[in-house]
Each structure stands twice: as structure tokens, then as C-alpha cells.
């Protein structure tokens, strides 16, 4: 069987996944580490107090780590031990992610994101190669007066000679169509 197992520990909980992988959480449910049978451990480090803490790094037991930097509660960059591999993020005034740029020694590549003004649902993603993923939504108002968006269609157009469209309009009430 491929089930997850939850064990209570003195200082939190451990989830064992098939593999087996062990995911350690503190008593607030905050993810602390992941390890495997070989003894390899990745430790997650945070700044701030629960529940507003921010993930600051993920450290391998060999000392190497990936660092995360924030501004105004939004992730701004992910830095690796190499100064030639990192990612930066940009946001609009509504705090929607507008771009993610990956820098390597050879090049930089950017994905740009566009959102609707009603629910801030992503309506388009375009990568550096010009490949575009477009999303359409159905909007409904729930009993509390909140406007909800449900993805109803996704179309992928690439410069690599393929196009894909998915119709989600059935929303689980039948069959979605992939063309």
C-alpha cells in the first residue's frame, strides 16, 4: 500500500510517506524537516513567530542551503550556494506575482503572469520562449457574498508546434475535454 502514516512525537508529528520519506512537523503543524532511510536530512528554517513566520532557508545536512528573501511578506528571491543560479520575483500593487526570473551563468529566463481584476485569478502565463498558457474562469457568488472563480478552460500555445486546450466547464460533473 502507498499510504501516509502520522506518528505523534514529543515535540510534534512525523509523516512517513512511501519511499520511505519522513516529514517532521512541530506542534503547530509547521514543517521542520524531511529525511530518508539513508539518513539524509533537509532542515527548514524560519524567521518570525507562528503563524506569520517566513521560510528563510532549506539546509542540507552537508551545510549547503537555499535562502529565501522577503519584502513586505512577499518572496523576492531564492538564492543558491552558487552566485550564478538564483530566482527573483516581482509583484503588482495588488500583490499578484507578475514575473519570475531565473538567472544562470548562461542566461536569464522570465515567466510573466497576468491576472483578472475581480478575483486576482491568473489568466495568462508566458515564458521567455513565448509559450503562453491562457486560463478562462466561471465566476459565482457564494452565500457570504464572496466572488469565487473556477477555471473553466486552459489553452497552451507554444512555439514548439503543439497546442493543447482543456475544457473544465463540467467541474467534476461529467467529463473534461482535452484537445
Give a brief outline of the structure.
By secondary structure, the protein is mainly beta. The chain has strands at residues 5-9, 12-17, 21-25, 31-36, 41-47, 54-60, 65-71, 74-79, 86-91, 97-103, 108-115, 122-126, 132-141, 147-157, 163-167, 177-178.
Characterise the protein shown here.
The protein is an all-beta fold and 179 residues long. Helices cover 0% and strands 58% of the residues. The protein has no helices and 16 strands. It has strands at residues 5-9, 12-17, 21-25, 31-36, 41-47, 54-60, 65-71, 74-79, 86-91, 97-103, 108-115, 122-126, 132-141, 147-157, 163-167, 177-178. It has a 16-stranded antiparallel sheet with strand order 1-2-3-4-5-6-7-8-9-10-11-12-13-14-15-16, with no helix packed on it. A hairpin with a 3-residue loop joins strand 2 (12-17) and strand 3 (21-25). The radius of gyration is 21 Å and the shape is globular. It starts with a strand and ends with a strand. The model is unreliable at 173-179 (pLDDT under 50).
Which word captures the global form? globular
The stretches of 5 or more residues where confidence is low (pLDDT under 50) are 173-179
How many beta-strand runs?
Answer: 16
The strands making up the biggest β-sheet line up spatially as: 1-2-3-4-5-6-7-8-9-10-11-12-13-14-15-16
Total of DSSP H or I helical runs spanning 4+ residues: 0
Strand content: over 45%
Mean of residue pLDDT values: 88
Order of helices and strands: EEEEEEEEEEEEEEEE
Distance between the termini: 34 Å
Amino acid at each position: 500500500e502507498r499510504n501516509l502514516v502520522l506518528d505523534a512525537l514529543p515535540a510534534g508529528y512525523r509523516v512517513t510517506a512511501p519511499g520511505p520519506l519522513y516529514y517532521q512537523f512541530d506542534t503547530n503543524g509547521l514543517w521542520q524537516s524531511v529525511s530518508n532511510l539513508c539518513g539524509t536530512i533537509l532542515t527548514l528554517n524560519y524567521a518570525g513567530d507562528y503563524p506569520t513566520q517566513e521560510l528563510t532557508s532549506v539546509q542540507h545536512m552537508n551545510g549547503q542551503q537555499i535562502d529565501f528573501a522577503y519584502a513586505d511578506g512577499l518572496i523576492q528571491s531564492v538564492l543558491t550556494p552558487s552566485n550564478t543560479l538564483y530566482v527573483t520575483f516581482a509583484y503588482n500593487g495588488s500583490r499578484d506575482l507578475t514575473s519570475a526570473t531565473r538567472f544562470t551563468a548562461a542566461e536569464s529566463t522570465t515567466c510573466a503572469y497576468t491576472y483578472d481584476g475581480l478575483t486576482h485569478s491568473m489568466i495568462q502565463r508566458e515564458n521567455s520562449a513565448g509559450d503562453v498558457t491562457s486560463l478562462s474562469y466561471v465566476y459565482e457568488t457564494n452565500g457570504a457574498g464572496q466572488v469565487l472563480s473556477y477555471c473553466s478552460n486552459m489553452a497552451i500555445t507554444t512555439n514548439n508546434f503543439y497546442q493543447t486546450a482543456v475544457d473544465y466547464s463540467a467541474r467534476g460533473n461529467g467529463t473534461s475535454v482535452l484537445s
